Automatic annotation (TrEMBL):
<keyword id="KW-0862">Zinc</keyword>
<dbReference type="InterPro" id="IPR052355">
    <property type="entry name" value="CENP-V-like"/>
</dbReference>
<dbReference type="InterPro" id="IPR011057">
    <property type="entry name" value="Mss4-like_sf"/>
</dbReference>
<dbReference type="GO" id="GO:0046872">
    <property type="term" value="F:metal ion binding"/>
</dbReference>
<feature type="domain" description="CENP-V/GFA">
    <location>
        <begin position="7"/>
        <end position="116"/>
    </location>
</feature>
<dbReference type="InterPro" id="IPR006913">
    <property type="entry name" value="CENP-V/GFA"/>
</dbReference>
<dbReference type="Pfam" id="PF04828">
    <property type="entry name" value="GFA"/>
</dbReference>
<protein>
    <submittedName>
        <fullName>GFA family protein</fullName>
    </submittedName>
</protein>
<comment type="similarity">
    <text>Belongs to the Gfa family.</text>
</comment>
<dbReference type="GO" id="GO:0016846">
    <property type="term" value="F:carbon-sulfur lyase activity"/>
</dbReference>
<keyword id="KW-0479">Metal-binding</keyword>
Length: 120
């Protein structure tokens, strides 16, 4: 998957909806840190300018831990974390998309790369 396209995504109940432009490259990441492993997230990181929250700014709650660098945003109604925000090591704003929350996304089309977040 090297061609950029626009995906639609959101939470389970529909209170949170967004669009994101990405080629899903660099690849989708399967992180083993304490929160990602419990949630089962598969993440793709995109520049903040490639993400547009269409609905749900007031529907999300923020959870932070450890370095407090990533905002783990989840729907207050259904509890699904379809995306999060933070700062890349370069200082650029970024958004972490849980690709499991993209509408009609074929998980078999990507091979997640394992990331050892537990050791960080």
């Amino acid at each position: 998957m090297s061609e950029k396209r626009t995906y639609q995504g959101g939470c389970h109940c529909g209170a949170v909806r967004y669009s994101v432009v990405t080629d899903l490259n660099p690849p989708v990441i399967s992180c083993n840190c304490s929160i990602c492993s419990k949630k089962g997230s598969l993440l793709a990181f995109v520049p903040a300018d490639d993400f547009k929250l269409q609905r749900g700014k007031d529907a999300v709650s923020d959870y932070q831990f450890n370095t407090m660098n990533i905002h783990h945003l989840f729907c207050k109604t259904c509890g699904i974390q379809s995306f999060g925000t933070g700062t890349a090591p370069t200082g650029d704003r970024m958004v972490a998309i849980n690709v499991r929350c993209l509408d009609g996304f074929d998980l078999d089309a990507v091979e997640p790369v394992k990331y050892d977040g537990k050791s960080m």
